[in-house]
Amino acid sequence: MALTLKLNGETHTVDAEPGTPLLWVIRDELKLTGTKFGCGVASCGACTVHLNGEPVRSCQTYIEDVEDAEITTIEAVGADKIGSAVQQAWVELDVVQCGYCQSGQVMSAVGLLSENPKPSTEEIDDYMHGNACRCATYQRIRAGIQRASEILEA
What we know:
Low-confidence stretches: none
Helix content: 25-40%
Number of domains: 2
Largest sheet: 5 strands, mixed
CATH architecture of the largest domain: Orthogonal Bundle
Radius of gyration: 15 Å
Number of strands: 5
Mean pLDDT: 96
Shape: globular
Strand content: 5-15%
């Protein structure tokens, strides 16, 4: 079935069967591989994208449910002020270790700072709880979010 998607500010027509996860359309059809497959059951956060500005797990978001939505992936998240601040903080603090989960971490961090520009440590931990990092860089991720908050405040 042919669907029209608005992804990263561009319109794309894709051919996908109903029930196809958005993740596979992004990666396989549109060749944007920054969004990662982690678990396939929305438990790890590696596949996080923004749907109308809200973080969602693309492995459990079906293509037929997003036709009229604005979808943003890691490839375009730096185009706005919050995304740019998060990316700057990640680089400044060398947050990434292996990097596999980091696109999902960044997308969730942007979601958090969009809702709460000055989160406490507890609020960061609560919000980011659904994002797994196999390298356990949670302290650096938390510090990156705090630094991004400072950048946004300046």
